[in-house]
Amino acid sequence: MKVILRKDVAALGDAGEVVAVKNGYANNFLIPQGMATRATEGTLRALETEKKQQAKKMELKRKSARDLAARIEQMALKVQAKAGESGKLFGTVTAADIAEVLKAQGVEIDRRKITMEAPVKMLGKYEAEVKLFSDVVVRVSFEVEAEGVEA
């Protein structure tokens, strides 16, 4: 029997795939658990339509991510942090700090999407990567300044 998987099934396949399974497995487990539906002509057409709609949505998200990436690249970010006389910070600048500065500029990014090569513990210029979409990654430059010092 051919079924369309509605959820990822470990040894069988991913959601949206059409797979052939034994009748008993489909009728007694997959279909009652909501993991699959029978692959009829109508459900296969519906699956194709659904896949086309998903592809359009993904392309729109990718385009908006690219636009946002271009906007982020143009920004000059400055992170304020407490520092000693030698330029060493009292703590570190984290991805959350960069996300906060981006938010102040009008761009909301989840801190978990921001990665830095190493913890920032000194004043100076640094770079971080922001993953906006599966294939859209932008490098953001930022400068760490001592708190209370006007440039």
Search tags:
151 residues, alpha+beta, 4-stranded mixed sheet, 9 strands
Concise summary:
This protein has helices at 23-30, 41-73, 95-104, and strands at 2-5, 18-20, 36-38, 77-81, 88-93, 114-116, 120-122, 124-133, 136-146.
Which structural class do you get from the secondary structure elements?
Answer: alpha+beta
Output mean pLDDT.
91
Unreliable stretches: none
The strand count comes to 9
How would you characterize the overall build of this protein?
This protein has helices at 23-30, 41-73, 95-104, and strands spanning 2-5, 18-20, 36-38, 77-81, 88-93, 114-116, 120-122, 124-133, 136-146. Helix content is 34%, strand content 32%. A hairpin with a 2-residue loop joins strand 8 (124-133) and strand 9. By secondary structure, the chain is α+β, with helices and mostly antiparallel strands. The N and C termini lie far apart (71 Å). The protein is elongated, with a radius of gyration of 24 Å. It has a four-stranded mixed sheet with strand order 4-9-8-6. A three-stranded antiparallel sheet has the order 2-1-3, covered by helices on one side. The protein has a two-stranded antiparallel sheet with strand order 5-7.
